[in-house]
Amino acid sequence: MTTIYGGCHCGNIRYQFVRPDFDPNSDNALPVRACTCSFCIKHGGVYTSHPEGTLTAQIEDEARIQRYAFGTETAQFYICKECGVFPFVTSMLDGKTYAVVNVNTFENVTPSALVPSTADFEGEIVEDRLARRQRTWTPEIKITYL
After folding, report:
1. What are the pLDDT digits (tens) for 60-95?
2. What is the model's pTM?
3. 60 by DSSP, 3-state: which?
4. Residue 48 and residue 103 in contact, taking contact as beta carbons nearer than 8 Å
């Protein structure tokens, strides 16, 4: 079990992501997926999550956060207005918040530990998309505003 630290460039958004199946000091690699939607392509969004993981985030100044939703509007990108970085994305499903973490915001994992693949969700119907998120995204989320 490893705690991965990360955040936006200016530090307004900080997080700890616990991934139970990853150890950055071993030879096991961390699977990550590059989304091919237009937003993620333009922003370099590459993600990881774990259905038994946890995400604990701290936001220093909520006024400097923009939540962005597009397309089906079933996911919220947490974007720092100060530096423009989005460390994670959330989705509310059946009254519970799920998340994926943008691996480009990791601070204690080297890029060589990441094994990327692409994920194309174009044409996926909303019901299937939400069911996939419930199966694969991180279900234990706590966001604190300081």
Report:
1. 999 999 999 998 899 999 999 999 999 999 999 999
2. 0.93
3. coil
4. yes
